[in-house]
Amino acid sequence: MSPRLGKRHSEEASVLVVTLLIASLVGITIGSYLIMVSGQNRSVVRSQAWNSALAISEAGVEEALAQLNPGAPEPVIDRTANGWGAAVNGLYGPRNSALSNGTYAVVYTDDKYPIIYSTGYVTVPAISATLTRVLRVGTTNVPLFNAAMAARNGINLNGNGIATDSFNSSDPNLSTNGRYDPTKTSTNGTVASFTGIVNVGNADVNGAVLLGPVATDSISKNGIVTGGVRNDFNFEFEDVVLPSALSNAPIAQANPQTINGTNYQYVFTSSGDYQLSSLNGSVYVASNANVRLYLSGNSNPSAIEVGASGTNSGSLAIYMAGASFSVASTVVDGGKAANLSYYGLPSNTSVTMGGNASFTGTIYAPEADFKLGGGGSSTYNFVGACVVNTVTMTGHFNFHYDEAITLTGPVRGYVACSWQEI
After folding, report:
1. What are the Cα distances from residue 299, in Å, to 85, 107, 145, 258, 370?
2. Taking burial as the number of CB atoms within 10 A of a residue's CB, which of 5, 65, 276, 391 is the most buried?
3. CA 192 – CA 228 distance, rounded (Å)
4. Residue 411: how many CB atoms within 10 A of its CB?
5. Do residues 196 and 154 lie in contact, with contact meaning Cβ atoms separated by under 8 Å?
6. Residue 303: beta bridge partners?
7. How far apart are the first and last CA of the chain?
8. Which helix (H) or strand (E) holds 393?
C-alpha cells in the first residue's frame, strides 16, 4: 500500500508545480501587458502635452501680435501698454498667462521689426515633468495697398473705356516728375476681391484679377486681363480706428485764400490735428505742413490740394466718420498718392466720385461702397489705390496704381514672416 500512496503524492506535486508555472506565466504576461499599457499611456499623455505646449506657445505669439497691431491704419503702438512694461535689455515683457491646460511666457524685441519669443509650458503629473516648447517668430510690416483696387464684396467695371494700369512716382522711368505719364506705364494695375463677383466686362485690366476662395469673375469677349486670374487673394479688412488726439482736436477755422488761381476756404500752413462737422468747401495744405482732419458728418468738398515746393510735399490724412463723402466735378490732388490719405471709419458707407472729378491719393474705407461715375475726357482720373467694400466704375474712368505707395504709403501692421521652433 505504501508505494501506491507515494506515487499519488508525486503526481499531486507535479500538478501543483505545473499550476504554479502556468500562474506565474499568466502573471508575468498580465504584468508585462500592464507595463506596456502604462508605458503607452505615458507616451500618449506626453505626446498630447507636447502638442499642447506648442499650441500654448502659439497663443503667446498671438498676444504679442495683438499688442503690436492695435488697429488700422498706421497704428500708433504703445509697446509698454497692457502690462508689457518698458524694454529691459532690448525686450518687452515677459507677459505670462495661464490657460486651461498650461501657461505661456512671451517677449518681443525693441527692433523696428520685432522678433517674438514665446514659450509654452504644460505640466504632466503622470510623468512628473513640465514640457516646454519655444517659438521664435520674425515680423515685418505689410503695405496697406498691395493692389490698385481691393474690395471685400465685389468689383463692377461697368461701361466703356475703363482701364487700369500702374506707374511709379519714385521712378523717373515710370513717371514724369513724379506724375502719371501714359507713355511710362507698367502692368501692376491689379484688381482684387475677397468675395462677390469681379465683373471685368469690356475693361482693360493691365494687371491680374485676384479672387478670394469664394469669389468669381466675369470677363466679356472684349475684356482684357494681362496678368491672368488667380484664386489666392487673402486680405484682412481691418476697421479704421480714430486716433485719440483727433477726437479732441480744435475746430478748423476758415482762412480763405486764392492760391494758383483757385479759391480755398481752409488753408493750412502748419502741421496739426483739426476737425469739422462737415467739409463742403475747399482745402489747401502747404508744402511744409502735415495735417490730419477729422470729419464727423457727411461731406461734399469742392477741392482738396496738397502743395509741393521743390522736393518738399505736405500731407493730408482725412478721417471720415460721416456716412457719405462725395466729390463731383472737382480735383482732389495730393501731388503724389502717398501725400493724401482718406480713411473711412466703420460709419462711412459711401464714397462717390462723379462728373469730371479726379483724385490723386489713397482711399481706405473697408465699409464703404466706392462709386466712380461719368469721367471726363482726360485719361488722368484716379491715381493711387483703394481698399473698400465694393467698387463700381462707370463711364470712362481710368485707374492708375502708384507702385511707390508700397514703400512710402501706410502699412496695415505687423505680420509673421518667419516661424521657427528653437
Report:
1. 42, 44, 24, 22, 15
2. 391
3. 12
4. 17
5. yes
6. 282
7. 84
8. strand 382-393
Q: What are the cell numbers at 363?
A: 482711399
Grid cell 527692433 is found at 111
- Measured CA to CA, the distance from residue 195 to residue 307 in angstroms comes to 38
User: Model confidence over 191-249: pLDDT tens digits?
Assistant: 999 999 999 988 999 999 999 999 999 888 789 999 999 998 988 888 898 988 898 99
* Strand pairing class (303-306; 324-328): unpaired
Whose grid coordinates read 502708384? 402
Decide: helix, strand or coil at residue 118.
Answer: strand
Residue found under cell 477729422: 294
Kindly list the distances between the CA atom of residue 322 and the CA atoms of 328, 341, 370, 422, in Å, as whole numbers in the listed order. 17, 16, 14, 49
3-state SS class at 18: helix
Grid cell 481691393 is found at 150
**Is residue 344 a contact partner of residue 351, using CB atoms and an 8 Å limit?**
yes
Locus of grid cell 512716382: 169
Output the nine-digit C-alpha cell for 366: 473697408
The CA distance from 124 to 111, in Å, is 36
pLDDT digits (tens, 9 = 90+) for 363-403: 999 999 999 876 555 555 889 999 999 999 887 788 999 99
Contact, 269 vs 252, CB < 8 A? no
In 3D, which of 359, 407, 367, 411 has the Cα closest to residue 385? 359
Torsion of CA 27, 31, 34, 36, to 10 degrees: -130
Q: Which of helix, strand or coil describes residue 136?
A: strand
Domain boundaries, the chain: 49-143, 149-411
* Residue 347 main-chain phi, psi, to 5 deg: -80, -10
Residue identified by cell 467739409 is 279
- Tell me the whole-structure pTM to 2 decimals: 0.79
Instruction: Identify any residues that bridge with 179 across adjacent strands, giving them in sequence order.
Output: 176
Strand 411-421 with 129-143, pairing:
antiparallel
| DSSP character at residue 266 | E
317/248 Cα distance (integer angstroms): 16
Q: Whole-angstrom Cα distance, residue 66 to residue 64?
A: 5
Cell match 532690448: residue?
90
DSSP SS3 for 2: helix
List, in sequence order, every residue forming a beta bridge with 352; answer none if it has no partner. 326, 371
Strand partners, 414: 141
